[in-house]
Each structure stands twice: as structure tokens, then as C-alpha cells.
Amino acid sequence: MEYQQILNSIYEEMSYRDVRGRVASYIPELAKVDRRKFGMHVYCGDHENYSFGDSEEKFSIQSISKVFTLAMAMRLMGEDLWDRVSVEPSGDPFNSLMQLEYEHGIPRNPFINAGALVIADILVDHLDDPKKELLDFVRKLTGNSNIDFDLKVAASEKATGYRNLALVNYIKGLGNIKGDVDKIVDFYFHQCSIEMSCHELSKAFMLFANRGRILETDEKILKRKTVKRINALMQTCGFYDEAGEFSFQVGLPGKSGVGGGIVAVHPENYSVAVWSPILNEKGNSELGMKALERLTTLTGVSVF
Amino acid sequence: MEYQQILNSIYEEMSYRDVRGRVASYIPELAKVDRRKFGMHVYCGDHENYSFGDSEEKFSIQSISKVFTLAMAMRLMGEDLWDRVSVEPSGDPFNSLMQLEYEHGIPRNPFINAGALVIADILVDHLDDPKKELLDFVRKLTGNSNIDFDLKVAASEKATGYRNLALVNYIKGLGNIKGDVDKIVDFYFHQCSIEMSCHELSKAFMLFANRGRILETDEKILKRKTVKRINALMQTCGFYDEAGEFSFQVGLPGKSGVGGGIVAVHPENYSVAVWSPILNEKGNSELGMKALERLTTLTGVSVF
Amino acid sequence: MEYQQILNSIYEEMSYRDVRGRVASYIPELAKVDRRKFGMHVYCGDHENYSFGDSEEKFSIQSISKVFTLAMAMRLMGEDLWDRVSVEPSGDPFNSLMQLEYEHGIPRNPFINAGALVIADILVDHLDDPKKELLDFVRKLTGNSNIDFDLKVAASEKATGYRNLALVNYIKGLGNIKGDVDKIVDFYFHQCSIEMSCHELSKAFMLFANRGRILETDEKILKRKTVKRINALMQTCGFYDEAGEFSFQVGLPGKSGVGGGIVAVHPENYSVAVWSPILNEKGNSELGMKALERLTTLTGVSVF
Amino acid sequence: MEYQQILNSIYEEMSYRDVRGRVASYIPELAKVDRRKFGMHVYCGDHENYSFGDSEEKFSIQSISKVFTLAMAMRLMGEDLWDRVSVEPSGDPFNSLMQLEYEHGIPRNPFINAGALVIADILVDHLDDPKKELLDFVRKLTGNSNIDFDLKVAASEKATGYRNLALVNYIKGLGNIKGDVDKIVDFYFHQCSIEMSCHELSKAFMLFANRGRILETDEKILKRKTVKRINALMQTCGFYDEAGEFSFQVGLPGKSGVGGGIVAVHPENYSVAVWSPILNEKGNSELGMKALERLTTLTGVSVF
After folding, report:
1. Taking burial as the number of CB atoms within 10 A of a residue's CB, which of A268, B42, D115, D255 is the most buried?
2. What is the ipTM of this complex?
3. For substrate, which residues are the binding ones (chains A, B, C, D) (predicted)?
């Protein structure tokens, strides 16, 4: 089957009516999103795109942004980064503060909040204008200069982000945060608020399916080894408490966000983004998981 | 490069002299193993074998046995198994008892001890002679009827296995162990004591690289989906506290044992076993990890 | 007011009808106890006794037995005992296994189960026939040779005591249990099953109100300092998760059991036992707490 | 023996040379304190004072301030306070964040930092100028209008107080902090910085030995029941991880601070303050503990 046929069949098979989860509600801005939204985009190159539904509509990428900031931090620090954050799955969420205490403030991986906040600290420390440079980075990957923060979302995160403030202060007390707490969480809440469409996300993630080079220009952004590391991290740690299930269902490295987006990459082949804001109980897009499972099943692609 | 050439170059490059770890010492029998041992075997079929060093020498497979018992339990229970044990990475070891408490006795995955003990309970519950049937299963996969327990090792494990006894009792108190505690740990300590060579292990694991069928006879042992599930679990949970690192270095599903063995599978291609008893600080074979990393690098194979 | 008048007024004021808790149900034998039972006994000497209700009826003393075994262990080991068990409150129950792990198998105090099991190990290790010697000790304190175990209760505890078995094995794995696991839990389940009346309990605890001497014979059983230590431990650790509340309400050192008994001592004055099997949500006798609060209020006695 | 004789003998027996602990160093200002300082003051009334050494020299009262703020909060909220903070010992420090998570942001007691921060929130919420009112309260109890904050110490605490900031944010995320995070920690760091002498502290704490009334004026400040509650809390929770040991050694309700001060009260008799900045490994004044143990032994006073 052709990709577009596969996508068409997924779009026909699945509907928001079949899933019972809820749209993220922890910040008011996210709770407003229409639960009927559903889009998917497979990117193989600028002249080879497949999609359905709301694939051109922007949504809040939330934790998917952690992959971008990790890539930026690895460009700045290389493998030295792993002195500040580890690369292992974290297990259940309850252990995170205990784990920080016993492992001297080194978060388990860059995709749990503690780790992403250490990454944010690194960017704030190294860059003159980290928010601008993050936007520049994502705009370059997508070739789209209108990608931006949703300032309402960022403000909303800030107004309720006490747990993240607790984390930064806690890690700072343990010595693994260098910079100013307020600047770090300000940067972090902004990165989570970036708005992108499935089309844009899949194009940006082609970097990780294309050995660290922008496909269209062949510009080298990341080392081969860095890409391998990031893909391995997405495989083992990309889905909160559901990394094992995603690894089984989809079999590709990927990253989800609480805004309902999921991106995944099939190295040397394609990258794909899907969006449906209805979350399962683990906080991942319910339709998104199913759609990616169908995609890899129908294309016969799985690493296992 | 041909597989044999690659193996030769690994054998030339690497030596027990270059690694500083220690042989497992928690039971006296394992501590006696000669630290100079080093062997590797790539199995592509009975007429296509590549190997070096001590690849025909038997060693204690320890936790690698958890893959065999998981396969047996899935044959008995199918997907219902996941009501008894979960499929997610467990994070740091300290949280395991806490996690059991909060998740009502459901271990995080079948490869942590708590999970393997629940699997042992299932086998003891369903099978008339579970120890014999386990040996039969492994003998069938390898076509080798002399595979057996090392009774000294089993007795040694029993004499020091208080933590495993604590786990079984704890889980029984939470309602997720049905059978007799002593029978379960007796079975568990025996399964860990199985002795196999790299040759035998790689042949046995071909099952997981060959869609659940024994390669030579084409006999179907496991469903396609079961194999996918087990491979996904090996990818995310197969290496204690180093699953993320192994996923990055090697990029294949695999499982290690504290006896110094590691097996990995490249679905549709080969299975490989390596053995060196010197462990790194996370409890995985130091040379084994390096050898597998070289193998996948030189063959240009990685899922990422 | 005279003691007997005070007791009379308590008996008139309070009734099992006014409390909503439940009788302990974790073992079938305890669940059979009549929830209407209510008795109290103040012991000032063999010729000075005050009581009401079911004060002569025997009930399962459960954790109150931990004070007797602690006293016996201190006679055997003196202050060296504190190398094996600590003397501090334990906080919430969830932390107990974590705490053992991080504090190398040293339980927080002798009244949590982990601590009582280490005490049981010490007695089993030092004594030829620990069960007989425990009965001898309690019989001597009460002058009553018919005090005995309830073997049905002991068997019932054994049949469901997986968590205690888990604890002993866990501590043994950490090196702080010397003896045979089965003997230790057998002893422990027997000690919990001892049956005594309020009259007998209050007479036995006079030891702790009388500087370590049996009041009637003036025989010295414990050192002055040992008594002070045990009383201090009862004050800070005697009431599971409600030590702070008991300290405030009653202001005396005491110990409760899940059978519904509570004993308390007013050094140099009296000892008192109360029994009502209805437990509050923290596992302490609801009427028992209230009755003791009234007693100390009406006698104007409180340490604060 | 007379009090003054007892104090003289303590002063002769004990010296900073005999103890090996260290002065608190977590903030630079505290680390500067002269380790030779040693003073004690027993207060029975303005005309009945006993003392030795540096009993008139001011030092940083640190956590002793938590008793003053608790008393103020109980005046404002009465027993409703216990909806916001519990009254039980907290066990080992590692569990505090876990405990908050599982108990919905309700700290275990008002003397652990989490609890004191909730108390600070209450005062900041109810009072127009909480810092001034705290000083007024302490000045009234002592009759000394020159008691004040040490602004250097307060600033020093603020500069390193990331863990307290983490706690406030964490509790706010769980809904049990109402006010502005920065105001709360500012108040908290100020309360800890109050400077008082042993003489002043013992006079202030006479409130808790005198049923809630200022001894000299007989003005009623606290209800009888409130005093009983605070004394019970000091008895079970006043000494960090050493409440059980203090209860045994001294047998009186008390509270220590990391500045090396300890206060204790003997209800209806006296209050006492001791100061030596050398801390034992649990963070309590080493000489202070010993001096109080001698005092209660020599006066024959102990609750047990």
C-alpha cells in the first residue's frame, strides 16, 4: 500500500468518538482545545508528503520541545552533557524526587521534567538569547519563520507551574542548576508553548531520520552519533510511563506531548507527526498511539 | 566485511586485560569463574555460524533465563499475562518495593526480579513439572538434550536469596502470587542456574529473530505478536539500570545475565551471544557490551 | 475524685455505640471478637485495684507483646541492643522498607514490625526455648501461671503473615537477622497471640511504673535505666501512626495492640489497661484512647 | 541540690573540648560562631534565675522560632490549624517529599520545615505585618523590646535556601500554600534569624511551663489546651531525627535549633535554655543535650 492510502485508511477507521480520554486540563489554555481535532503527516521530503485531517493546524507541542532543546544542548556540550543528566528510563513518576536526592541531583534522562529543566539551565547559561535561539533553531529545521511561542500558554504554565519551580529549586540545592531559577522556568514554559502543525513537526524531526542533516539543504546540524543517542533516548524514554507499550505498539523512536502531539522517526525513511488532543490515562494521545501503530503495521515496518 | 572477519577483529581488539570490573561475587559459585573467559557466537542458521574464543563453553545464564520463562508463560496465558505484570522500565532499583506497594503488587516488567518471580509463580501454577518443562523448552530450542541446571549454583542462590524470598512474600501479601513460596523460589533459583554456551544461547534466541519459529524445523513456538512483545521488552528493560545505554550502544533488543552473558537479536537476520564474566558497575558484562557495540557498528546495523 | 468513681463515670459516659470503627479483620480469629466488649483496669497494687466492664476477660494482646520481648532482650543485651535497632519514631508506614534499605537493615524502633522481628531474632538466638521463656516472663510479672498463647490466633497469623515474612527475609538479606527465618516468625506470631485480661496486663506493666521491680515482691527485673528507655520508647513510638495524638490526649507512655488493648503507665503511681476491640482508622482502640484521655484529665495527671 | 549548684557542677564537668561535632556551616553567618560558647539559664520567675557561662549572649535561635510561630498560628486558627498540618513524628528526613505527595500536601508536623512553611503561610495570610507581629510577640513574652532579626543571617539563609523554596512550591502545587511564595520564604528566613540569649529564651518559654500565661503579669496568651498540644508536639517532634533519644535522655518537652540552642520546659516548674554551637551528627547541640540530661538527672525530674 502507498503511504497516502494507508493514511486514508487510518483516517477512515479512527475517530475521536471511539476514544474516551480527556483533553489535558492542567492549564486552562490547553483545556480549550477542540477534542475533535485529528491530523497526521508523514514527511519523506519536501516533494513527498502524505497527510490527513488537521495536519496543517498548529497546536501546543509541549514536551516534544524537549527533543529540540536536547539537540541544542548536545551541540553546545557534546558528550559532556551526560555529566549533568543521565540516559536511563525513570520508572514511575513518584520516584523522581527520591531519585534526585540519591543520585545527587542528576536527573534520570532529559525527557522527564527534571532533566528538561537541567537542559534549560544549560541553554540559558550558554546562550545570549535562548528563547530567540530556540525559535531560530526550529524555524531553520522547518524552513518556516512564523513558528512562535503561544504567550498565553506560556503565561498559563507559569501561573500553575509550582511543581517545576519546586524541581528547579530542589536541583539547585543539590548543585546541578547553575543559573537563575526564574530565567530557567521562564525559558522552560516558553519552550513548551511553541505551536507547530503536524506538517511542521514531521519536517523538523526529519533531522533525526536523516543522520543529523537537513534533508533539503544537506546542512549538517548534528553529529551522526548525537542523532543515534537522541533516537535511542526517544525509544526508551519518550513516552512518560508508557515507553514500553509504545516500543511494542509502534516500534519506532518517538516523543509525545501533553498537547496531544506525537512525533516518531523511521531512520533513513521518514518522520511522522500525529495530533489528537484526547489523552489516555498515561498522558499520551490515544488516537495518536493507535494511528502510529496502524502506520507501522500497514507499512510492515517495525524494529522488532 | 564478513561476520567472521568482524568477529576476528573484535577478538583481536579486545581483552579481559582492558577492563577493570569484577566477576559477580554475590554467590560463591559464580565468584569462581575464570575472569579471562571470552567468547562470542553469531547464529544465522545451523550451517551459518560465526564465533570466537570460549563460545562453546557453558556458563551460568542467570537472568537470561527470564526470557525463556516469559516465553513459556505467554504460551500459557497469552495477553492475559499483562494483568499480572506490567511492560514498562522500572527506573532505579531502590523504588521496586515502593512501586509494588503503590501498584498493588504488579511488578513493572517481567525482567526485574519481582516480575520474574510472578512469572515463576505462573509456571509453577500451570505446569506439572515446571523445572523439567523449562529444560525441555530450552533443549528443544537448541536441539541439545544435555542442557541442564547447575545444582551447586542453584543451592548457592538459595542459601543467600533472602531478598528474593522477601519479594515473593511481599507480593503474596499483596495478592499477586498464588502458589507456595518455597516452590516458586526453588524454581526461580533453578532457572537462573541453567548452563549454556554462547553457541547454544544464540541458537535458542534465534526464535526471537525468526518470528517465533525454530529456524531449522520451521516449527511455530510463539505467535508473531508475542515475539514482537518480547523483543520490545528486551529493548526497553533487558539491561537492569543500563537499558538506555545498551539501546544507544548496540541498538538491538537483548538480555544480559550476571554470569556475564548477553544475548541480542537482529530480527530477520541473526541472533548473537557473547560471554565475559567481568561486570561493569551496573552488573552487565563489560566486554560483552563493547563486543556487541563493535558488531553492530561494523555490520552497519542499528535500529537508529 | 477517687479512681473507682472516675472509672465509673467513664463507663457510664462511653459506649461501643458511639464509635464507628471496625474490629480488626486481617486475620479471621480477631474478626470474631464481640465489638461490644469494653473493660478497664487501674492497678496500684494487689490490694488497690479499680476496674469496670470486661476487665477480667482475656483478649489477644498483639503488639503489646512487643514491650515484653523488648524488656527480655534488654535483659540479655543491655545497651548493646541499640546496635541492632534504633530508638526513633518511624513516620508514615510507607517508608519502612525504604528506611531499612538506607539504614542498613536497622529498624527505626522496636515497636514497628521490623524492629519487633529483630528483637524476636535476638530472643530466638539467645534462649533455648524462647516461647516458654516468654510465657514464664509474663506469668512471673502477673503471678498468673495460666497465661498462654492462643494457638488458633498464632496459626491464623502465620497463614496470612506474608508481609512479616518479607520483612524478616529482607532484613536477613541486609545482615541484621542471624537466625532461621521460620523460627523467628513462628516465635513472633506466638508472641502476638498471647491472651491476657486488662487486670493481668495492668499488673504486668506495673513493672514499668515501679522502676523495674515487681511491686508485690520487690524483685528487681529491669535496671532503672532500662525502664526509663522503654517508657521513653512507649511515649514516642507506642501508637503506630498516632503517637503524637496519644501523647497529646493522654500524656502517658503506652502501647496499643490491634486486638483493641491499650496499656499505659504513670510512673510511681499506677499502670492501666483498657480494652475495646473497635479500632479507629489508625489501628488503635477508639474507646480505649478516649477512656485514657478521660482518666488523665479527671485525675489531673499529664506530663504536659 | 539547689539549681545553681547543679548548674555550677554541669559547667565544671562539661567543656567544648570534650565534644567533636561541628558548628553549623550551611550558611556562612552561622559558621562564624565561636565554638567555645557555652551558656545555660533556668528560669523560674524574674526573681528566680539560675545560669552559667554565656547565658546572656544572643545567638541565632533558628528552628526554636517554630514554636513561637506555631503559638501565633494557634491563636489565629485554634484547632482548625490541624487541617493544614498534622501532629505526628516524621521519621527519617528522606521521606518528607514522598510523604507530602501521598498525604496531599499536609506536612507531618509543624516542626519539620514543610510544616513550619505552612505555618508561615498562615501568618503571612492573616497578619498585616507578620515580621513585626512576630517580634512583638517575642518581645512581649520576654519583656525585652530589643529582640530582633539578624538581617545578615536572614539574607544568608535566603541566598542558599533552595530546598525551602522547593518545598513551598511543591506544597503550593498540592494546594496547601495560599500566599505568595517569596513573601512566605522571606518571613521564614527572618523568623529563623531571630537572636536571643538563653536568659531571654527561657523566660519566653515559661509560657509553656505556666499554662499559657505570662508568669510576671499573669496575662493569658494561650489556652490551656493549646499549651498541652504544643508541649506534646515538642516532646514527640522537637528534635529532628533525635526525638526518641532526647525523650529518653531528658524526658522533657523541648525544641532545638541548628544555631546550637535548646529550650525545654518542666510544666509547673521551670523552663530552661542552653546554648553550645557544636552540633552532633543529628544536628542538635551536643553539649546542650548532655547538660539537659544532667539537669534532669540531678534534679530527679523526668516524666518516666
Report:
1. D255
2. 0.91
3. 63, 113, 157, 164, 188, 240, 258
